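thread: overnight batch results

M.L. [08:02]
morning all. the overnight job finished for the chain we discussed friday. pasting input first so we're all looking at the same thing
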Amino acid sequence: MIGTAKTTSRDLRHAGVFIDHAVLTEADLEWLGTVERLVLWNVSVPPDFLSRLPLLWWIDWRGGSAKQNLGQIGSCTRLRYLALNQIRGLSDLSFIAYLSNLEMIKLYGLSKIAILPSMKGMTMLHRAQLGQLSSLSSIGSILAAPNLRELELHNRVGVSPEDVEMMRSHPTLSTFEWYGENIPVKMWKPVREAVGLPLTKAMYPEAWFGLAD
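M.L. [08:03]
and the structure it wrote out:
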């Protein structure tokens, strides 16, 4: 591996491993074999590498570009948490549709994403955080998740009138918030008022999953 790696404990089985600006190789499979949570910051990963980590249930992929084999995430069917943040050129998220065990998803700063895959089959998905998806015109695909409970939007996200009705009639959605610090008030406030749900509380994924600091 070229770069740096940090762990949150000595036992990788329970650790969150942070890898920063690195190039992983097949040799790294051995020391990552017991990792459960992985944060990748501008990291190059060999094809099918992540699916060969048997305990991996958390991926937080930040920076870099769409050329870094992100499609392999679709083979990580044990994932319960996925975050994709500011990945240049990423325009296809179809691989997410295979992650039927996801409980929480966070998508931020993906300017090329114009459509999200339907999450109708994601019965475990309970919390979604979407932000700065400037090419997106609708969040209906997320609202298709039948047991979604909490939805949090940040800055520029496309929300259609149909989306508002879906939120109002969704059988399990119980909280909604739109933090619009960097967009006009007229974009987010009328939507928040029309949906009329209690406000979603900001929450780190560690808190959501009950993990210690």
